[in-house]
Amino acid sequence: MTDWNAMGDAEFRKEAREFFETEYPENLRHLPHRPKFAEIEHWHRKLHAKGWVAPAWPAEYGGMGLNAAKLLIFYEEQQRWGVNRGRDMGVQMVGPLIIKFGTQAQKDYWLPRILSCEDIWCQGYSEPGAGSDLANLRTRAELDGDDFVINGQKIWTTMAHDATHIFMLVRTDSDAPKKQQGISFLLAPMDQPGVEVRTITTLSGETEFCEVFFDNARTPRENLVGELNKGWTMAKALLSFERIFIGAPNLAQNALGQLESFARGRGAFDDPAFRDRFAQAALDVEDHAALYARFADQLKRGETLGADVSMLKIWVTECFQRITELMIEAAGPDGGSIGPLQVGNVSVDVLASFYKARPTTIYGGSNEIQRNILSKAVLGLPG
Amino acid sequence: MLRESVRTLFDRAGGVGRSRKLRDSGGGWDGEMIRELAEAGVFGVAVPEENGGLGMGLAACGVIAEEVGRVLAPEPVVATVGLSLGLLRRLCPDHDMIGRLIGGDTVLATAWQERGPNGGPAEENCRYADGKLTGNKAWVVGAAEAQGFLVLAKGNTGPVLVMVEAGADGLSVEKLTQADGSTMGELSFAGTPAEEMAGGVAVPDALDEAVNDTAALAAAELVGLSERAFETALEYIKTREQFDKPIGSFQVIQHRAVDLHVTCEVAQAGVREALALMDSESDPKVRARLASRAKARAVTTAKKITRDAIQLHGAVGYTDEFDIGLYLNRALVLSAWLGDDAYHRRLWFDAREGEGAAQ
Lengths: 383, 359
Description:
The complex is a heterodimer.
Chain A: H1 9-23, H2 37-50, H3 68-80, H4 89-101, H5 104-116, E1 121-124, E2 140-144, E3 147-155, E4 165-171, E5 183-189, E6 195-200, E7 209-220, E8 224-225, H6 231-237, H7 239-245, H8 250-265, H9 272-300, H10 310-331, E9 341-343, E10 346-348, H11 350-357, H12 367-378
Helix pairs in contact in A: 1-3, 3-9, 4-5, 8-9, 8-10, 9-10, 10-11, 10-12
Chain B: H1 2-13, H2 15-24, H3 31-39, H4 58-70, H5 77-91, H6 96-102, E1 108-111, E2 127-129, E3 132-141, E4 148-155, E5 158-165, E6 171-177, E7 183-193, E8 195-199, H7 202-239, E9 241-242, E10 245-246, H8 251-279, H9 284-313, H10 324-336, H11 341-358
Parallel strand pairs in B: 1-4
Antiparallel strand pairs in B: 2-3, 3-7, 4-5, 5-8, 6-7, 9-10
Helix pairs in contact in B: 1-4, 4-7, 5-6, 5-7, 7-8, 7-9, 7-10, 8-9, 9-10, 9-11
Family (chain A): Belongs to the acyl-CoA dehydrogenase family.
Keywords (chain A): FAD, Flavoprotein, Oxidoreductase
Domain Acyl-CoA dehydrogenase/oxidase N-terminal (chain A): 11-117
């Protein structure tokens, strides 16, 4: 087994880059939508054969065992080449939780199935009344013999219509003194009569989000991960690395590259006012990358990131949106047209980029929630 | 180390309160502070060790400039390090004036601009021949207090850098008072005696580099200024009560405060990175682009933060009694000096296009 962490950063970057560039299918680069598993199954098999499905998992569970520095490089290279993350909810969310809090039996059973994508996972956190206020969730799970019986509704469940299993936060004690208490982390199969999935059509016409309804759905009691009523703390423990990842510069950098070639082809740079707006956006991206590097260096030194890392997400998502708005501006009368717009030998789907940028300020903790967190945890403001 | 010693020096002397006193007593700087800064090694940071300096780079100078910005110190640290010493160490590294500037024994103001579009270094007007200088210079920082001037002029065989003593024959200095109480000088020379320091094509090259360095250091000074202005506003909204609560408990205030904080952090990271990159880059065109990146970011940030900080203070922010207004006024001056954000974005874009075309 290769000890990737023993490798130099540059050498490891080269290894990852070469693998992605030679093995990743050209037609799947920078996919504007989330693929169903069938669409990327071929790529997943390659990753699985190389043992690269789970970069962050310890090697003993079939992961690459990368430390934070190498992990960052891995993701940077993945994003740089436009490699789709695939159906990675199992790898990113369930696996780490089972590794940290699961029983030996749970590890033995679930982890290999996550790596092979025999099970494909979706995340059941949000509910109609529990979005930003996630702890307000009401979907209940009650013990009935050897099973939990689940009733309630989840929403914004990404790709639930193409998942075999759901991991969810459920209320297991309605009388707990604080709403964060009384929440448990539960795994459940989707293929059963008590589970109904409806897709939600988004502004861009995609159907990657779903509603999931539970009407006396059942899951065996051994599918409880960790202690009963301790799910909230467990779920929060997972988020720290995600917060730098969600603030990475790549999405905005890629969009900026698209904007530049599109604007050049369209002659938008003849307009000094447009040049200035482009320069602002480009410098916003460059200086954000400098701040990102500061946090990445912290990780590389083995330090834990504080709540201040949220500022990366606020800045880069809003910047990403401005860039896609400039694409529409450069498109002129074509700014409302669906589908790729051809400029010379470049083809840019302006509206797809625009739509892709919109939810980034909503998901992963809306930018308003991030501002609340920074205001209290970093600036020490009262209330 | 450098940061701590400079910060301690300024704090002991009274921080921003000292700067207010100097402004109230008619502007200008404190000669004693110049000597103390010199003892701390501040002026010689970027001068090579063999010429009596510390041989450190622009990033180290930036650290000092940030501290200058935090307390609004009126001493011309950035102008001396970037322009006067920036020119002398490149053009005449063995001249004994370098040691005098490093030691704080004297301060020279650099006169390179002339009135014209964008304040460019036009050498057309200012002439040097037979040891005499004739013509005009504009926007000279520290002209009222400096013991002498370094002047860019046109000599008989090309561009020259000459030195003129303050109070020399035929020199008149018109003072333009700035928003922060400092002055800029409009100089005119009529057969003024001058000493030639350097000549030839090296002069405009050195000037370009020195101006780039200085713009980048002014950016660092603005970053320090912005940070302290934000901290001041943050302290204020934590203590000021209305409706029986600190106004910092209101979400609309909190979100504005967070936006200023994020803006400030991005500026600090971006400007520090630009300065570090300038240290490892030798191509003047690339260094110019980096300097413009830094100045554009710093000006945008300082404008935003000082103006919003006034708003967060409410009515008292509009009074001279509160320090926050001093930050706004200094930001106005530093933003206008050597080009504002719109100007530097233009330079940045053009430099980037130039690099693209060269590839």
